[in-house]
Amino acid sequence: MLARAASATRSAAATAFALMLPPRCPGCGAIVEKDDSFCHACWGQLRFLTPPWCAICGEPFGDPAHAAARCRRCVAEPPAYDAARAALAYADPVKRVVLNLKHGDGTHLARVMAAQMARVGAGWFGPQALIVPVPLHRWRLWERGYNQAALIGRALARRTGIPISVDALVRTRATPASGGMSRTERFANVEGVFRVARPVAGRAIVLVDDVLTTGATAHACAATLKAAGAAHVNLLTFARVVWAGARPHDAPEETSNGES
Ligand SMILES: [Zn+2]
Ligand SMILES: [Zn+2]
Questions:
Q1: Could you tell me if residue 225 is inside a domain?
Q2: Structural domain includes residue 8
Q3: CATH number at residue 199
Q4: 111 lies in some domain
Q5: For the residues of 218-235, what is the DSSP string, one character each?
Q6: What is the pLDDT of residues 81-139, one digit of tens each?
């Protein structure tokens, strides 16, 4: 009893202490005026993604004449997801936010990310919408302690009121890290590793992850969800690699959950 009272006092003290701490920029840790806001320097470096972009994967096009068109890659190999949208280009300070989510103050950063994602995904939050995070294999979950996609998904669910099913999709085996793999290798790496464990039939799935790289993981997840009867699968991420001039092996892990 005494121990519990002491621990309650401790946690109340921790909360009070957290409330006293000034809010910090999610990009660089500098003290900022408002909770969940970037400092001026980081804000100036953010590259918000806007149309024109590929109607399917959301890859930005330089030329407005291409609006509503599909990129060459989506024409050649249409992905299993209906569309993918990301709030920001994957470059500093967004990279740091994504890395810090894995190693730092997850809940706070997930809230910052969800705020940006709610804006980009606004058209997808209809009555049949269901948020499903890209799963982590249970061994990786055990290693890391949490699935960052699930943290972001929960923050997004709280913000939008859209239900979330954290275990609708499960990963049946751990896969090797995809850093350094070619695009083809990344697709082969995640083929057949997902399984649907909760009903998704007729739902408009909002598949959530932190970063979109080649889309291999999202493609495998979407194919599995559609085979189980999902009406739509749209991928919503905080950031995406913008491919203009980039090659797959320069890119980060295949989404952060793709490595596992
Ligand atoms: Zn900053
Ligand atoms: Zn595309």
A1: yes
A2: no
A3: 3.40.50.2020
A4: yes
A5: HHHHHHHHHHTT-SEEEE
A6: 999 999 999 999 999 999 888 776 678 899 999 999 999 999 999 999 999 999 987 77
Which has the closest alpha carbon to 84: 239, 252, 234? Answer: 234
- pTM for the model stands at 0.85
28 C-alpha to ligand 2 centroid (Å)? 32
* Distance set, CA 194 to CA 3, 174, 175 (Å): 43, 10, 11
Number of domains in the chain: 1
CB-CB contact of 163 with 139 (8 Å)? no
Measured in angstroms, how far is the CA atom of residue 151 from the centroid of ligand 1? 22
Q: Is residue 258 part of a domain?
A: no
Residue 21 CA to ligand 1 center (angstroms) comes to: 16
The residue segments making up the domain with residue 118 are: 50-250
What is the distance in A from the centroid of ligand 1 to the CA of 255?
A: 23
